[in-house]
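Supplementary material to the annual report.
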Amino acid sequence: MPEQTVLEVYRYLPDEETEPRFQSYEITYRDSWVVLDALDHIKTEIDPTLSFRWSCRMGVCGSCGMTVNGEPKLTCETFIRDYNTETIKIEPLAHFPVIRDLVINMQDFMEKLPTVSPWLITDEDKPLEAGEYLQTPAQMARYKRFSMCINCMLCYSACPVYGLNSLFTGPAALALAERYNLDSRDEGTQERSDVVTAHDGIWRCTYVGECTKVCPKDVDPAGAIQMLKLSYALDWAKSLVLPGRGR
Amino acid sequence: METFQHDVLIVGGGGAGLRAAIAIARDHPDVGVGVISKVYPMRSHTVAAEGGAAAVISPTDSLDDHAYDTISGSDWLADQDAVEILVENASKELLQLEHWGCPWSREPDGRISVRPFGGMKLERTWYAADKTGFHLLHTLFQTSLKYDAINRYDEWFVTSLIVADGRCQGVTAIEIRTGEMHPIGARSVILCTGGAGRVYPFTTNGNIKTGDGMALAYRAGVPLKDMEFVQYHPTGLPGTGILITEAARGEGGILVNKEGRRYLQNYDLGQPLDINDPNHPQKQTMELGPRDRLSQAFIKEREAGRTFEGPDGDYVHLDIRHLGEREIDRKIPMVRELAVRYVGIDPVHKPIPVRTVVHYMMGGIDTDTNGATSLPGLFAAGECACVSVNGANRLGSNSLTEILVFGARAASVAVDQAGQVPPPSNQLLTTSARSQEMKLKATLLHPNGGSDTVSGIRTALQETLEEGAGIFRDGATLERTCASIAQLQDRYEKLSLVDTSRTFNTDLVAALELGAMLEIGEAIAHSALARTESRGSHQRTDHPDRDDDGFLRHSLAFRGEGDPTIEYKEVTVTRWPPSERVYGRA
Ligand SMILES: Cc1cc2nc3c(=O)[nH]c(=O)nc-3n(C[C@H](O)[C@H](O)[C@H](O)COP(=O)(O)OP(=O)(O)OC[C@H]3O[C@@H](n4cnc5c(N)ncnc54)[C@H](O)[C@@H]3O)c2cc1C
Ligand code: FES
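Predicted assembly:
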């Protein structure tokens, strides 16, 4: 059944205008449409100047995060039919500089990510001939959830701490640090500790839990940060009792 | 204008591109490497791959079996030397991924688990639940962050190859954020730009899969090989084209028509085994037949009026209910997630509606087994390349393996060659970028009052390709498609954009992509018209038989002033002479 609605879309065209504004588009949509379909419809049929990012349209590439009626959402997974407000307001993700329209600048995250060493760290290189590292399903289950992050930036956009202080390493990057720390193949917990426990690392998190609430992939970054706090606090306590310990 | 230089420049940050970059940074720390990608690398479409990656690890399996399955799956059009390289290096590459942290699914004892896949005789598909591509890409991306030597250009769009003195010496590219054109010089360039499914109206491919790299090579005089072979996947969701992975059938899912019959038994794919039989699903028969045959069967069922009719086109049922909730959630959770979300059906309780959908390009940039093209200094790997291991029909789960094996391989040869030539001159780089910039200003960014739009031309291209170069084709419809693409190209020549701004101009990006899509469409249609036989995914109703005497050869499309010229090149046969493809017959 086709239905009508109005999309109120944040527009910012720095080449021409100094201030952002909202532009309304009246659209006819189908029950099966997600917000991204409506934006694409606007771009192809009404106004080709509207800019936004997207690719997979199946909730896995992480490109299409925006603020929909005030909440951070993956727009390819967010159905128009679920909004019965008169208009639907689409804005760029909060807490990031806007490049244009709905496109945010996420360079900050791209620079933070490598600082937590999100790769497998081992004391020795295991040769390929030696085969795989054995890892039971139970061992994998310990970190699997934290490995599901698609870097969509919804958690940064929801995090009040990051909103106030963009030096905070932030939920997604820290969750990835914990993903590797918990991997039975990894020996890098100590190496990650400097950045993870630094001034703007885990201790900044006040456990508001907004990141976990908005995460479209059920990663639970807030939980990851809690686990990091616990394990590093424990390490620290142990190091007081057993000096010289640690890798 | 700033200019940049690297020894080796990789275009593409998907699986192939990142694997190549790591190969260089790890094994050749003194070589400067750049990676340029029109999206952040982890957005590349490798991320969408679901089912798995093939490599022999089971003691009962053998490299020869994997090679044979691939070759017969390709309807004997694959180059057998390339296939042997693929299967020999496959498990090494997948293990390497494991050592970098990829969470491959495991057996209870901690060993790697493998699942059955279409056209494969044995279980040899490694998987990370049903988000294999996602885990593979993020593992590669995160591992690549370890190497400071990898210089990335994220969200830069390559517009042309810089060719001088008979070799490729870099690229020109637009930094999308600022809209500025820059040259990036290199002594070797590797194209890892992925596929082109977006040239069709209904596809599993993301918005970015527009064949740019293939078009870059084609315009530089490098032929596109076997472009007539387009893979339709048998199980996409109606409406969106979102893929329901073949793993659903690998785990035991069945395909049923509107009469409740497992219709594949009518198409020489063997007899159905009861779903409760311990041997179900039976490898290489019925639902585990190859994709070309299954997609063709769907069209025949539709012609016979035995498919369901829906608002988003005809469909059949993929039924996985008998697997039970636990197995579904453990092995193919994303199938459930996608079906519930996008068609409102929980496959635990109801069959999933599915239809055929464009999925993969077997064809691509003509390369040798090292990824080298006919243009010195230019290499290609991954879905944009045609080595060829896929021939006339790719087997599912061979592609993720291919991008790793040939990504790494092309990297090492590109490094060798880079050492033998001088870097490009600054003057060459700046004049190349300037001329690209002037061209843009004189064409797309030059307001001329025309009313044509990117989406208008794009939709027309997609429709004419589906009409003329779909699952079944014939000479008459192909000729019409060739003619209408020529007209669309004329329209494109005159296209000017409403949006002439520079900051993150996505209409400009889409217009440049459309330019590439038209080249790809042209190559597909003309190659399909010239191949007057039926083989694998290329089914000519006016030439229904395979013709080995005439066409056991690769087509090569060369760009011309008007229509492309189509030439042919021998297929490499090493140990497996062509014979009949047999599925489900003893
Ligand atoms: C839904 C889906 C499921 C699949 N499942 C499987 C599976 O289970 N098993 C399997 O083996 N295969 C599968 N495939 C196929 C496989 O995923 C792809 O063939 C493979 O991932 C392609 O990798 P690639 O590195 O060649 O290209 P991509 O991952 O597509 O990367 C292309 C890169 O090139 C860049 N690029 C392109 N054009 C430009 C330009 N003009 N300027 C700058 N950069 C550019 C892009 O930004 C991107 O980084 C699947 C495909 C789809 C669509
Ligand atoms: S478009 Fe890829 S996550 Fe939405």
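Residues A 54-57, 59-64, 74, 76 surround FE2/S2 (inorganic) cluster (ligand 2) (CB under 6 Å).
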